[in-house]
# Entry
Amino acid sequence: MQLDKIVAISGRPGLFESEAQTRGGIVARSLIDGKRVTTSVNNQINILSEIQIYCVGKEVHLSEVFEKILKKEEGKIASVSPKASSGDLEAYFFDILNNYDDDRVYPNDIKKIIQWYNILLQKKIINYTE
# Structure
């Protein structure tokens, strides 16, 4: 699972594929609509391969979380909607990662992870292998 070029940009919905680095930011293409955007140093840019989820006693890479979702869903779209209630999101995430730190991982974080998983799956950046 190659997430090195996939980024999340603060203030912009969805995920982006980094295409080039500029003096003050990056040029990226939206995975949702294919439009090209340029960011500045004012935008927070998070590379998905560097994101980790807080768990009790350790941190887990986001790619491992995506693999667990893929396994649970057998390569299909997430069975819970990102717009589901906080309780439903937390219950779903607990099924996937039962030792996550619920004091530091908020329902909005879970919502983003599920949205990102669905986008990456639809764009065939992640895929299920038995």
Residues 2 and 115 are 18 Å apart (CA to CA).
